[in-house]
Design goal:
Elements: H1 2-22, H2 29-49, H3 55-78, H4 84-103
Keywords: Cell membrane, Membrane, Transmembrane, Transmembrane helix, Transport
Protein name: Guanidinium exporter
GO molecular function: transmembrane transporter activity
Length: 106
């Protein structure tokens, strides 16, 4: 269950990163509120996952999910570049996330 909670925390990290972009430096009310709520929820879920998972693993996976998800959203919705080396780099992050999951009991 802690891995599912961690996955949700990572997905919320993607959500708040998108909200942060949409808030225009916290100058737009509702995107700013969305960002603050999803940040708090993401951190809270990370804290719950840390009850059973090692700190280094959970934090690395959480940030990895956030990084990969945010890059994918940036490419697909915001027109950011999807060059080969960028995609390979994202693949390496995914490989690291999988490696940490496989090598961590719980």
């Amino acid at each position: 269950m802690s891995w599912i909670i961690l996955l949700l925390a990572g997905l919320l990290e993607v959500a708040w990163a998108i909200g942060l972009k949409q808030s225009a430096g916290f100058t737009k009310l509702w995107p700013s509120v969305f960002t603050a709520v999803t940040m708090a929820a993401s951190i809270a879920l990370l804290g719950l996952a840390l009850r059973e998972l090692p700190l280094g693993t959970a934090y690395a996976v959480w940030t990895g999910i956030g990084t990969v998800g945010t890059v994918i959203v940036g490419i697909m919705l915001l027109g950011e570049p999807a060059g080969l080396l960028r995609l390979v780099s994202i693949g390496l992050i995914v490989a690291g996330i999988i490696g940490l999951k496989v090598l961590t009991p719980a």
